[in-house]
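Feature request disguised as a bug: please show the residue count (404) next to Cysteine desulfurase in the output. Example input:
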Amino acid sequence: MIDVLKIRKDFPILQREVNGKPLVYLDNAATSQTPQQVIDVIVDYYSRYNANIHRGVHTLSQEATDAYEQSRQKIQHHFNAGHPYEIIFTSGTTHAINLVANGFASILKKGDEIMVSALEHHSNIVPWQMLCERTGAILKVIPMDLNGELIMSEYHKLLSNKTKLVFCNHVSNALGTVNPIVEIINAAHEIGAAVLIDGAQAAPHIKADVQALDVDFYVVSGHKLCGPTGVGVLYGKEEWLRKLPPYQGGGEMIAEVSFEKTTYADLPHKFEAGTPNICGGIALGAALDYMNNIGLETIAAYEHELLEYATEQLLAIEDLKIYGQAKEKTAVISFNIEGIHPYDIGAILDKLGVAVRTGHHCAQPIMDFYKIPGTVRASFSFYNTKEEVDILVASVKRAKNMLQ
Ligand code: PMP
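Example output, currently without the count:
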């Protein structure tokens, strides 16, 4: 059971007001809020041991290096990766996907096929389109249905011995659909294709065990996990990380440099050029500790209660339509009210202190599928309450009365 009132005390931002009203923060799918425990780790880093890592003999540098590498191990254990060096720190999901896409430029050949799902965020579409332009590979799309679920029979038909790589999100940011990644991974492996799963939206609610999944790449962003922005993780299977060339060149990622020839550092440093987001990496470990102390299963069960409650209340509003009613979904509700632009609803909700996201949610193909310009998206976290759902519902009714 979650003691939500106790948990809320950990999040200083939840005490603030917006436009004279208590903040009701329902934009958790865009970014989650940061608990004091993580803020303290950030302050402690800059107050006590801010230094560059991996190079210094001095105490501060060693302390920072130890904290950074311990965080890598925490992340390894969280995702049950086989080795710490299979965890690459990135600036976020987008960076991680681009790193892998860049690597595949040296592997794919003209006519090879790579496959994306219809439910993707732009960051899991555009890097692959760029890869196709570079290599002559062909992009195939697993279609979706009106419930916001992937049509798996079509997926199986699209797979062939030409398919080299499949990438799909674990959870859709626009609709909250939880995708059948076990089936996706197993079927791709049967024909010898690699799989990248974008776990940006799943990681705050579902613990992915990368070894049990046997996934080739799994990527997440720290800022959706109660951590800071500017840090994320690429998990890659050792064999793939050894096969892929480095993404960026620079300091940290080399073994030896001369003007004739440069050799690269071993994993994970091969993919970590330049001074990384040291504080961010350390804080991400602290954020995972915070979430694991509550427990992801407990978090997901509570959020599901909020989802069911909010769905029922919102559907009772006349002319309100929810997009994406997948059998399995996280606590995301994407909706519109007939005849009203989502932006106008979002602007009124903001005046009432309610933070939601409006627009295409970086998933324009999904909006095109439903033939809409965008939606209002309320996304819930474990620190939200039923009272906040009531405020959302009352505010949406008020916006509707003002706008319709
Ligand atoms: N994929 C999904 C499913 C997302 O929700 C997001 C963030 N909205 C991203 C990728 C991109 O993450 P970031 O901006 O942190 O790189």
